[in-house]
Amino acid sequence: MQKYLPLFTICLLLSCNSDDTQKDPDNEFFSNLKGHYSLKEIYSEIPLDLNFDNITNTDLLSEIDCVIAFPPELYKASVEYYAISGKKVFTFETANQDIQSENNIQSKCFYPASLSYSFDRSGPDNQIIITNRNTEREADYGILTNVTLQDNTFDFIIKKEYYTPQGWQELNTHLLYEKDN
Q1: Residue ranges of domains in the chain, CATH in brackets
Q2: Which of 38, 55, 139, 150 maximizes the CB count within 10 A of its CB?
Q3: Is the CB of residue 67 less than 8 Å from the CB of residue 110?
Q4: Rounded CA separation 166/16 (Å)
């Protein structure tokens, strides 16, 4: 029996199909997404006056002139992909108003808050599908309604309320995060 062992080993090695070593398209796609991203733009579809200077703007970064912690230009996002478990998570920071009282607007400052989501992809166009969300954090910081990825840039669309001279306004905010080199 032992004299056949080397022959059996050689047959076993030769019978291995080279297709077994092909890359999993999911692993390749998500490995390319993995990394850190920097905020490039925050904009709304409707012009707002968030700093109460009587000038409305869709470029919300230009409306944020008071910050707590660090400015939105330093906001980061990350994508983590765990190939062994298949878990995919993205986390990003969103700008939130610090309104103490609607009757006495003394602080019009903004502070960062992070939102994290598990996700997957669907279809040939790699549509991002949210598979798990934290509804408690979304109630405080905005609801992610859509996410798209194009040319290493994420567009996170958040539905949230902002306080303006006209009162509370609910709208969609786009946060564009570009992959760091």
Answers
A1: 23-179 (2.40.128)
A2: 38
A3: yes
A4: 70
- How far is 76 from 115, CA to CA, in rounded Å? 11
| Amino acid at site 61 | L
Alpha-carbon distance of 133 to 147, in angstroms, equals: 13
Q: Kindly report, residue by residue over 128-150, the tens digit of the pLDDT.
A: 999 999 999 999 999 999 999 98
Written as six digits, the tokens of 155 are 């567009």
